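Example 9 (inverse folding). The structure is encoded as follows.
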């Protein structure tokens, strides 16, 4: 099912324990990975401090861009749950300095409300 979700651009959840070694060099002291999602080789990683977006580039995947967004830069966000005919969930993040929101679609069975709670916990301090 993961391949089908990737083909349609839907993010699938990733085990955060497996990401500790991959992101260990950029995670700071006291920072912990709380949730992570991937589409093909790219990942969105939510820590207790920021959102890290990994863009894997090139044929071999050896070139990587890590884009960090502190939660304090997110001005507001929205979630959309899956419906009867459109089962995908969606999250939009409005980041200070960007004119349009960042959008990520997730597969239907993701706990999108739980993701919203996690974002609210960090943004609404």
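The amino acid assigned to each position is listed next.
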């Amino acid at each position: 099912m993961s391949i089908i979700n990737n083909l349609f651009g839907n993010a699938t959840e990733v085990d955060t324990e497996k990401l500790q070694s991959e992101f260990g060099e950029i995670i700071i002291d006291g920072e912990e990975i709380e949730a992570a999602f991937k589409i093909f080789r790219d990942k969105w990683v939510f820590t207790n401090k920021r959102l890290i977006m990994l863009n894997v580039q090139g044929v071999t995947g050896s070139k990587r861009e890590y884009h960090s967004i502190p939660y304090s830069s997110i001005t507001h966000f929205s979630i959309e749950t899956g419906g009867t005919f459109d089962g995908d969930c969606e999250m939009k993040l409005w980041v200070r300095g960007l004119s349009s929101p960042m959008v990520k679609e997730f597969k239907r069975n993701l706990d999108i409300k739980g993701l919203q709670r996690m974002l609210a916990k960090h943004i609404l301090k």
